[in-house]
Amino acid sequence: MFKHDKNLLEMVRVERPNPNYAALLQEQIGGPHGELKAGLQYLAQSFRIQDPAIKDIFLDIAAEELSHLEMVCTAVNLLNGHEPQAMNATIGNVQAHVTTGLNPFYSNASGQVWTASYIEATGDLPADLLSNIAAEQRAKVVYEYLHRQIADRYVRQMIDFLLNREEAHNTMFRECFQKVQGTGSTQDWGVDKDARLFFNLSTPGNYVGSSLHDPQPPSFSEPQIPPQ
């Protein structure tokens, strides 16, 4: 169950309407690296998790991603302004001016509608965690691109907040990955001889890694919290 707090996670405001930028920001509503995808992906993955602590982390992050979606939709709504004016919008956001009455729509910056095919869920916790770490990294990159393309200080403040939250989620997923080493698809890593054979294809006939007798699955160092 989710409990809806009517206060946004962080204040959202804009200096002035900007329909063109509203179209760009749509990417984080209905794009493949957006907030809707993230929230629903982590929720879907949580259903097969047996570890109660890790399951809680997935659900907590999923709920927060939906709160991010609410923030981005609020910003797009403010950026679209008060009256439909399609001539001031880019092609990716024309629909808001002709069918949705400026209501933010589940589409990306090009106007393509969101699809559940964006969601990665394998039932294997290590694989899903690696997908989520990559998802958070990609989401941060998109926010960095968006940050560079607007001078509105309030929108930039919102984006700064969101991209830093993506970093926090990334860290939490990395900590979870540390805990599941040796389970699921990371079991018996490097046991077969074919898993210990590495090719240097720029030098035909040359094999590299022959001295690697104990290959390990991907791992991440525990994040270090700097002293206050």
UniProtKB/TrEMBL annotation:
GO MF terms, alphabetically ordered: catalase activity; metal ion binding
Record has Metal-binding as a keyword: yes
Cofactor (UniProt): Ca(2+); Mn(2+)
InterPro entries, sorted: Ferritin-like (IPR012347), Ferritin-like_SF (IPR009078), Mn_catalase (IPR007760), Mn_catalase_dom (IPR039377)
Pfam families: Mn_catalase
Known EC number: 1.11.1.6
Binding site for Ca(2+): 56, 60, 200, 202
Positions contributing to Mn(2+) binding: 35, 65, 68, 136, 169
Top-level lineage group: Bacteria
EC category name: oxidoreductase
The record's free-text note on cofactor binding: Binds 1 Ca(2+) ion per subunit. Binds 2 manganese ions per subunit.
CDD domains cross-referenced by the UniProt entry: Mn_catalase (cd01051)
Keyword Oxidoreductase attached: yes
Keyword set, alphabetical order: Calcium, Manganese, Metal-binding, Oxidoreductase, Peroxidase
SUPFAM superfamilies (alphabetical): Ferritin-like
Coiled coil: none
Transmembrane segments: none
Family statement drawn from the similarity comment of this UniProt entry: Belongs to the manganese catalase family.
Protein name per UniProt: Manganese catalase
Source species of the chain: Neomoorella stamsii
Lineage: Bacteria, Bacillati, Bacillota, Clostridia, Neomoorellales
